Amino acid sequence: MPTLKPAPAALAGSPPAPIQAGQYVPRVSLRPSEYTAALIQVLHGKAADWRGAQVLEIGSGSGVVLAALGAMGAASLFGVDIEVEAADEGLALLRELGYAAISRVEQGDMWLPAAGRRFDFIVANLPHFPMPPAPVKGRLASWSYGGGDGRELLNPFLAGLGQHLAPRGRAIITHNAFVDVEQSRAMLRPQGLGLRIAQTFWINIPDVKLELLTPAVLAAETGRTIHRYGPHAFADMHIVEIGALKHPD
Ligand SMILES: C[S@@+](CC[C@H](N)C(=O)[O-])C[C@H]1O[C@@H](n2cnc3c(N)ncnc32)[C@H](O)[C@@H]1O
User: CB count, 10 Å around CB of 160?
Assistant: First the structure.
């Protein structure tokens, strides 16, 4: 079992040395979020579907989503993360849990490390919070920053999905309800892909994130997908499933 002693957040300076076998300690800056929990919960509800699957996660962070898919019987686990320490820690977690032989985690941008490859199942919990670039609560800016409209990472992810899904392949991603779901659906349709909301969760938006949320999004979505009770705020967050359209237009 991994040690649960928290490691100091490594937020600045040169990247730390690669984690050696047996030295895995999770970084506080990569701790799983409420989004991660909701995503894994939905994956668990369909556990039989991932047995024997070749899996790719874009933005693998701590590696916990891949670890959960490994526990559900995935045949191979490929993680990609833009942050070198996330790639390092993700692989260390997968090794610690006994998945070394089926795991690969690469530091790189979005689809580049997986260029030319197709997967049975692609999962992503990408940064897609509409906000200016800023670190939030001990995380790197790359954890949450989705550009002013939340689509800076989401759009290239959706644009490349069709080229990386195997025939009959599927993707499951987190999708804030205050980031236009219909726009995502429209991006997928020309690729012969459809989207459905598998489940919706309420996610707490802490003050520090609420203050950063793009003002136009806050104004438009309060009372719709953002629910406020005095100083406390919650937002609808969808877990979205993407697969081949049964009847492409
Ligand atoms: C919200 S975190 C999710 C981490 C993990 N999947 C989880 O659920 O806990 C988003 C992750 O995406 C990574 N990321 C941001 N931009 C990326 C990019 N252009 N390519 C690949 N990964 C990226 C971040 O470094 C971060 O680890």
Answer: 18
Closest by Cα among 54, 102, 58, 65 to 80: 58
In the chain, the amino acid numbered 245 is: L
* pLDDT tens digits for range 41-97: 999 999 999 999 999 999 999 999 999 999 999 999 999 999 999 999 999 999 999
Question: pTM to 2 decimals?
Answer: 0.91
**Whose Cα sits closest to atom 11 in ligand 1?**
59
How far, in Å, CA of 142 to CA of 145, rounded? Answer: 6
* Contact 176 CB / ligand 1 (< 6 Å): no
Give the SS3 label for residue 127: coil
Residue 146 has a CB neighbour count (10 Å cut-off) of: 21
Ligand 1 close to Cβ of residue 84 (< 6 A): no
Tally of helices (H runs) and strands (E runs) in the chain: 7, 8
Q: Using CA atoms, how far apart are residues 48 and 45, in angstroms rounded to an integer?
A: 9
- Residue where the block lists tokens 């049975």: 120
